[in-house]
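Memo to structure team: turn this sequence into structure tokens by end of day. - J.P.
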Amino acid sequence: MAWYIYVAYFFVGTFFVNAIPHTVQGVCGNKFQTPFARPHGVGESSAIVNVIWGLSNFVIGVALLRVVPAPSPLPCSLWIAALAGAFALALFSANHFGKVRSGAPRP
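Reply from structure team:
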């Protein structure tokens, strides 16, 4: 299998993991950090921006699954690539947002 398929599945995992906190915070009506806030990744965006950003990440992940050719059923190596992407972004986000949001709890 070509190397770019593994890279694509790595990013599928990252997009799916990134969709979760933005969509959940937005649906709950909370502000949360997005790349569109000032300063980037630290400032908070509105709940609506977070819903749009979260669902956009989900759509991009699904689009990658549709565009990149992969055998059916998926081999374990592609599952591992997607999980590695999910794990990498989850650890990065936990570290980054743990520092950013370490102040008083937000509603």
